[in-house]
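chain below, 273 aa
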Amino acid sequence: MTIHRYLEKFESFDGSITVTFTLISYEYNSAQSIRVPYKTIGGANYGYPMRGNQPGLLDVAVETARLVYVDTAATLDTEFDALKKAMYEGALGWLYTLGSDGTRRRARAQITAMPEYNISWEGGLSIPSTLSWQRFSDWQDPSLTSWGPIALVAASVAFNVVAGGDAPIWDAVFILKGTFTDPQFFSSDNGFTFGSTRDGSNANHWLRVDAGRNRVEFSTDAGVSWIPDFSNYVRLPGQIQLMKLNTGTNHLHYAQSGAPSATIEGSFYNHWY
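prediction:
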């Protein structure tokens, strides 16, 4: 039977621990608050929303699965011991959902309590249990999307990057390779801009912008080793994140002083709310 998207499994970041959930008497609940900062004003009703017409801020989500383990008594004891060990030692890892179309999405999550253990005489050889996680990210495609390289042979180059999903991407990676001077690239869709005073003088000089880790790094050996380069980063006033990609077609532009002899490429994971 094909069913709508549900919580399928938990996996540690290193892949050494995987727990796939039983679907017996299965229930799944996902809840997430939205933080809307506001100020109260003396003598006035309601309050003043501090974010204006922007969306509120997504809070940490709570993902809960309620299910029943059924087996022989000895097997249930062993299975539940293994479940508790895996959930605890897996710590912060990937929580996966599986959709009716067979596609998976994952998010960073950590168990908030040991699995509940409930037995009753009427329940026979079964253990109803509840598992609950805090989710610390959007849902994302487990497969990386890569684009480029795009040749940069003029002082100004326009190019497009297409992103899927339904949520903006805040953790994309961009890599500029080759000869460049005071590089800058920006989005004409959302206004996000990255600039640097770092110059590259040969094909082995790479500048990496990792928005997810909030890092800017430079390599002189074609990416074999990297050194921090945040001190050369130039951001717009009020811009907190390094870069942002919208869902759909992103119209990006590269600009610098003089003509470069370089390429730009990148990667990201599609995101869903």
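The longest strand covers residues 200-210. Helices lie at 73-90.
thats it, cya
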